[in-house]
Amino acid sequence: MSKAEPRPKSVKKTLNAGRGQVPEYKDGTKAVFHYEVLRPLDLTNGMPESRDDYESIEDTRKGYPHGYGLPMELIFGKKFQLAIFETLLRSMNVDEISQFDVEASELFQYPLTSKKLRDLAHSREHGHGHSHSTHMCAATMAEGTGYPCLDELLKKPSPLRFIFHLLQVHQPEDYEAEGWQLNPEAKLKSVETLKQQGNELYLKKKYRPAIEKYKEALTRLDHLILREKPGDPEWEELDVKNVPLYLNLSICYLHCGDFYESIGAADEVLSRDATNDKALYRKAKALIGTWELGKARESLEKLVAAHPEWAKLADVELQEIKRRQDQVAADKKNICKNMIKGMEDGDRQFKINDLLKFAKLRINATRRQVHGPYQNPLRRHLLLEYESQHGSARLFKEKRHINRVVWHRQSSETARQVGDDAQLLRFRHAVRFHLQGPVEKGQGILHGKWAPEHARSEPADQRGPQKLQVCTDEFNVIIALEERVYDQVLDHFFSKKQDRMVHVHIINIDIEDNHEDATNGAWLVTDICEKLSKCRDLTADIERVIEEFADKNPERNIMHTIKFY
């Protein structure tokens, strides 16, 4: 009696034949494809024929939580957790669409693999804060995946129908491998390649793309260094390769106006070579950019002491330091004059609220560009706006010195009409809150009835939120709500002509783009504005106020720089 043939683990049915010959699938081949997963509703008579008898539980064309939201990329030979996927794809042509009925015994890893892909989609679409962990241990499995359809498969495994659409096939020599795909020898070689690519971009003044090349090279180098024992010759040989990469990063950040990043990159070099000439010079330049003039002078003095040939270049920067110090001294005198003018004849109380102007910069979630200012002289009342993808944060008005709050939500129609070069943003929908009825003052706080007022669309020529780059107003304080915006503000002042030498304090308070943090952030901005408004001497007191504010909010990225008009 002959031995029975083993039952096939999957059954294929071609829905669209595709084109050409079946590609060669070897280690390193990349397949790009979409897939949909169907779970049968009733298995009494085997796998049903009609699609109506299935429930779709995953589709890569759909976003979170129903799928990955992008085509899958599978590298053959890299031990993908669902090994059956490689088996299925090996039978397909490009553009082919086929369905595969796969036995449950081949799909034990499917629920956990699908969970990881969905979590990645969630992280990509909503930022890094998400509730689903990508690590699964036994205890986590007992609690479930967080996705009901996958939990059901964990409890009761079932055969599934996969519909694959093969989009592209790339051979190893036809695409640039990512770092995780490379062996140590290839990874080390790629570090030098990335460095050269970054250098070419730098010469073309494409600083941001060059930064990405250098950062990727550093990441790959770190992976190689972790394989060696610190202090060994092999470790030293790899670690020294960090120096030119960090030097290149520092100069690129300097050109972009990212002074703090430039300082950090220079410090990485100095931690390995304490008298490196280029690192000391670039750090000094960046410190001047952040107005840390004393530290900049120290860096230049170290440079000249170790490398006398740099004396001429150092003298140029020392003159710039002196010029800026003179500017600060002159501005302080002007502030004192304004203080005297602002004093009342009776009690000689200085009204700094009459002098300060605040600009709050917000982020347009779609275009991610700097918008503002939405300014208002701070006279016991503050107009604050923070817009995110969840709408604007509205302050609890009865608890603050606020007599008018505007909530803007930009319509999709308006977003299409407003280009990157628009001088003004025009909002089609707004809700204005204004104080109605009798008003009582108690301990400096206004009390009354707050009522929404639906506003009409603002005419094009009416003043509204402007791009800071085209605003002609001058402010004492500019508050950015994201470090990238803060950097753009610094870059704006760095590039503009400083003719009046009137200084402006630029503050960054990082606020995440979600409803909860937008609301909390609105309170924080209100709080620091109130504290600054009570300063008798803004120039003398602002560092103390910011330091106290930072101590109370250690989780926030708070930065402060002085620039000039």
Automatic annotation (TrEMBL):
<keyword id="KW-0963">Cytoplasm</keyword>
<dbReference type="GO" id="GO:0006397">
    <property type="term" value="P:mRNA processing"/>
</dbReference>
<dbReference type="InterPro" id="IPR011990">
    <property type="entry name" value="TPR-like_helical_dom_sf"/>
</dbReference>
<keyword id="KW-0677">Repeat</keyword>
<keyword id="KW-0507">mRNA processing</keyword>
<dbReference type="Pfam" id="PF23322">
    <property type="entry name" value="PPIase_AIP"/>
</dbReference>
<dbReference type="GO" id="GO:0005634">
    <property type="term" value="C:nucleus"/>
</dbReference>
<dbReference type="GO" id="GO:0003755">
    <property type="term" value="F:peptidyl-prolyl cis-trans isomerase activity"/>
</dbReference>
<dbReference type="InterPro" id="IPR039663">
    <property type="entry name" value="AIP/AIPL1/TTC9"/>
</dbReference>
<protein>
    <recommendedName>
        <fullName>protein-serine/threonine phosphatase</fullName>
        <ecNumber>3.1.3.16</ecNumber>
    </recommendedName>
</protein>
<dbReference type="InterPro" id="IPR046357">
    <property type="entry name" value="PPIase_dom_sf"/>
</dbReference>
<comment type="similarity">
    <text>Belongs to the SSU72 phosphatase family.</text>
</comment>
<feature type="domain" description="AIP/AIPL N-terminal FKBP-type PPIase">
    <location>
        <begin position="24"/>
        <end position="167"/>
    </location>
</feature>
<dbReference type="InterPro" id="IPR006811">
    <property type="entry name" value="RNA_pol_II_suA"/>
</dbReference>
<dbReference type="GO" id="GO:0004722">
    <property type="term" value="F:protein serine/threonine phosphatase activity"/>
</dbReference>
<keyword id="KW-0904">Protein phosphatase</keyword>
<dbReference type="GO" id="GO:0005737">
    <property type="term" value="C:cytoplasm"/>
</dbReference>
<feature type="region of interest" description="Disordered">
    <location>
        <begin position="1"/>
        <end position="20"/>
    </location>
</feature>
<keyword id="KW-0378">Hydrolase</keyword>
<keyword id="KW-0802">TPR repeat</keyword>
<dbReference type="Pfam" id="PF04722">
    <property type="entry name" value="Ssu72"/>
</dbReference>
<dbReference type="InterPro" id="IPR056277">
    <property type="entry name" value="PPIase_AIP"/>
</dbReference>
<dbReference type="InterPro" id="IPR019734">
    <property type="entry name" value="TPR_rpt"/>
</dbReference>
<keyword id="KW-0539">Nucleus</keyword>
